[in-house]
Amino acid sequence: MSLEKSLWLGGTDNPQAKMRLFCFPAAGGGTLAFRGWAEQLPEHIELRPIRLPGREMRIGESCFDEAITAARALASGLQTYLDKPFAFFGHSMGALLAFELTRELRRRGDPMPLTLLISGRRAPQSPLPREYFHTLPDEQFIDTLRTNYAGGTSEAVLQEAQLMALLMPTIRSDFALTDTYTYAPEAPLSCPIYAFGGEDEREFEEAELDAWRQETTSNFSMRMFSGGHFYLNQPSQSELLHCIGDVLETHLELHR
């Protein structure tokens, strides 16, 4: 089966690649969130952005609003593509999906990522210290996207009422997934975890990002970058991708 025909995956098949990097988007995001990343990573890394239901060519499908259900579907949908060394990168909601998917793969006895790269998300065991965003009235919800998640959705889109009406159900479902997430204690993962965040993050404290160290028995590292919740779009994208490239090269070498 050609990887390019998978509904779950964006990116391009690279038969010469030594490793795959699966990238999970933030709430409301799709494969375009990782546009241009492949060109900034080592050429033997195959970038595979995840395409979730409810967006792009899957626009007619129902979105996930529960993390465990999503993880089970992802484990089945990606099983064919775990035939070479791989890693997971997830930002915000995507970090939660990457984490729960890794635990689901462990339950199934399937191949595991060489490393888990977490971005812009408090550790899963950290309780949500705020009200649910996905139930806010439209105007307040859009204001929340504008303030707490600046840089994720352009101001031009936020001000376009008809377009936001089309996007809102998907974004609300994604926020429901993260808002209502309930952490279930399990044994820590055996793969290393790298946690990344923006220095001007408004959603959580640095200590809540650092708490990801509790989810692995292997190495843990945390690094902060200039910017807010969407620091990875700008101003720190190149710096982040250079760091990710170095991490992947290190673990690929250790895997040989």
List keywords for this structure.
256 residues, alpha/beta, Rossmann fold, six-stranded parallel sheet, 33% helix, AB_hydrolase_fold, Thioesterase
Descriptive notes:
This protein is an alpha/beta fold. The protein has a single domain, classed as Alpha/Beta hydrolase fold, catalytic domain (Rossmann fold, 3-Layer(aba) Sandwich). It is 33% helix and 13% strand. It is built from seven helices and six strands, in the order ββαβαβαααβαβα. The protein has helices at 67-77, 93-108, 138-147, 155-158, 161-179, 206-210, 237-255, and strands spanning 19-24, 45-49, 86-91, 116-119, 193-198, 220-225. The chain has a six-stranded parallel β-sheet, with helices on both faces. Helix 1 (67-77) packs across helix 2 (93-108). The longest helix has 19 residues, at 161-179. The chain is globular, with a radius of gyration of 17 Å. The two termini are 26 Å apart. The model has no long low-confidence stretch (mean pLDDT 93). Residues 20-240 form the Thioesterase domain. This is Thioesterase. It comes from Pseudoalteromonas prydzensis.
